[in-house]
């Protein structure tokens, strides 16, 4: 059985892979200065934040669609007590 990751997890995985690629390229081309380390940290945090926002947006969209589907369903009528007519009580 093949497991499909959730959209949020897939976004996070892509962000992590992108960060690792950028980090590898940067470490091969430049000396890792404190400023560069801070830039890498910032890039990683930004990628994670964007992935989280994408996952949150996806969840909100799914919740909104589910709520809309519930509202559009026809309502079931529940039989209530039969009200007597004024003419029947005489």
Would you mind describing this structure in some detail?
With 90 residues, the chain is an all-alpha fold. The model has no long low-confidence stretch (mean pLDDT 79). The chain starts with 6 loop residues before the first helix and ends in an 18-residue tail after the last helix. The chain is rod-shaped and about 95 Å long. α1 runs antiparallel to α2.
Features:
90 residues; mainly alpha
Quick gist of this model?
The chain has 90 residues and is mostly helical.
Beta-sheet strand percentage?
A: under 5%
Envelope shape: rod-shaped
Main sheet: strands, sense, barrel? none
Helix content: 55-70%
Structural class: mainly alpha
What's the helix-strand series?
HH
Radius of gyration from the CA trace? 28 Å
Q: Helical element count?
A: 2
- Overall strand count: 0
Distance between the termini: 72 Å
Report the uncertain regions: none
